[in-house]
Specification:
Strand content of chain A: 25-35%
Shape of chain A: globular
CATH superfamily of chain A: P-loop containing nucleotide triphosphate hydrolases
Strand order of the largest sheet of chain A: 6-7-8-3-9-10
Order of helices and strands of chain B: HHEEHEEHEEHEEEHEEHEHHHHEEHH
Structural class of chain B: alpha+beta
Shape of chain B: elongated
Largest interface: A-B, 29 and 23 residues
Distance between the termini of chain B: 30 Å
Largest sheet of chain B: 6 strands, mixed, barrel
Radius of gyration of chain A: 17 Å
Number of domains of chain A: 1
CATH topology of chain A: Rossmann fold
Number of helices of chain A: 7
Number of strands of chain B: 14
Oligomer: heterodimer
Chain lengths: 233, 415
Amino acid sequence: MSLVTADNLEKTYQIGEITVKAIRGVNFSIEPASFVSFVGPSGSGKSTLLNMIGCLDPPTGGYLQVAGQDIANMNRKQAARFRGEHIGFVFQDFNLIPVLTVFENVEYPLLMVQNWPEQKRKKQVNDLLEAVGMGDQAIKYPSQISGGQKQRTAVARALVTNAKLVLADEPTANLDGETASRIINLMKKMRDELDTTFIFSTHDPRVMRNAEIIFTLEDGRLQKQNNNGGAHA
Amino acid sequence: MLNIIKIAARNLRRYQRRTILTSALITLGVVAVLLYISVTGSFKDMMVGQITDSMIGHLQIHRRGYLASIDNLPLNRNLNEHQVAKVKKILSNVDAVESFSMRIKLGAMFSNFTETTNIRLNAVIPEQEVKTVPLLPDRIIEGQKKDVLLQKGEILIPELISKGMKVKVGDSIVLVANNKDGSVNGKTFTVSGVLEGISGPGGRDGVIHLDDARELLRIDGVEISEIAIRLKSMDDLPPVFSRLKAEIASIKDKQDKPVFELHTWEKLTPFYNIAKMIDLMTFFIKVMLVSIVLVSIMNVMIMAVYERINEIGTISAIGTLPGKIMALFVTEGFLLGVLGTVVGTIISLISIAAVNAAEITFNFGRQSDLLLAPVIVYGDVITIGLIVIGISVLASLQPAFKAARMDPITALRHV
């Protein structure tokens, strides 16, 4: 069963008297444990699509199912719960909470969203920090670590709840080439170990090279798919 | 909840200077209010104590209608022997009553053999009177304070008459009075002391022995104008008043109307209005404190939300429920309030202790060297603390609600 299924998906914004069709009748499905990239020029609808898959922005037309659930009609609270349970996020600007340490940032979703018991929670956080190579940086604050380390921490935070799906919006945009490659390799490794599906929006050719499926968007329409297995359009 | 408190506390520490400034403002407000309450409270208590303990007692019982015509000192509205016995019996059954004093209030002509003036007098049984108004002997500014307030044949005269009539301690004077039938009688007294005048009714009255008044007014048997009552504790006033009022009201005359009337000190002195004004001023000072807290917390929390829009977007995106986001910001406001209150209370208590240790004296009207002794009761400290913390939470609600309602996408795009 597909993890993400979109059928004639649409998103329309009303800006004053102007109607903007950001996504125009998109169809695709993504299987579990895929490494998928949405690419396209600015304004093509990549981020909008990712926001809809991430239950941050509801579709205005068509059908979108994520982890077996129709997400079109969720209210704010239901959407927040769904994100907390099933989806992890990696942001371009890392978006770590500055007043929390690396350990606490990764721990945050287990503590404030899922309420895991202490022992289990600490083990899970330590395991993930080790897995992303941040075990020795656990007590540092975001201001004390490099960009690459911040993004590793963000990846650990996205995976800590055993999310089935991680959405990464331009995850390498603020990283140098070498660090970006390490982050992509790390995410691929985590996908292999945990069977988590990673979906990116990106301009970065390094990310595109590593993606197993690439969806190309233009003017809100799905133009092309390079399919190396795991997804169907 | 502990985690929310931890994160909120760290956020406050993140914006250290702003947190310190806001807390300092709240601290200043708390200190100002607690010091004001303690100082005005001590003034009020001192004034109330002066009036009740040196003049009128905590409660007074009269014959019905006496108080309405008290300016005329009517002798035909005195309580008779039978009525006095009934009141005595009722009062002796109330444990909260410390003592009571029987008084005849009268007006007389005061003569120093060369000049004559009017004088208002309280005729008392000295032992009863000193127990009921224990500060009365302290008002004797001339003349030796003896074990007994005064003997038969002696008079304590008010300061104004002493000065105006040039009468000193040891001088003989004559009092001439009409009794209730209109006949006139006179009696010679020796001035045994001069009483300091204080504000309020009875504050410029002279004092003579009850037996002398009966002789002067040719009263046979027992006749009493008023019974002043002292309670063991001022806190007992409301329940004792209710109980006595009920018991006294049950005693009716032939027309089935109550024989007695009972009044608290508040009804007997205009100072009560001043006390009420002090309470009103305290209320407005509290309103000012509330405004300070409200504006400063609201301002700081609006800033906190504005500066952390992107962070709000992040925690919202990763699944934090709106209620928890709201709780996070409300807790920040709560902690600011707690910080300001705790520091403010500590500074206030130290300041109050310092003022007491310094033994500052001041003059009030004709009274000098009054000791400024501010006291603060725990109830006031707790009330102020709860008000400040409550307002802090209230002021955080709107910014916190705004944060909780924020659209995660818009918040994440915010730079």
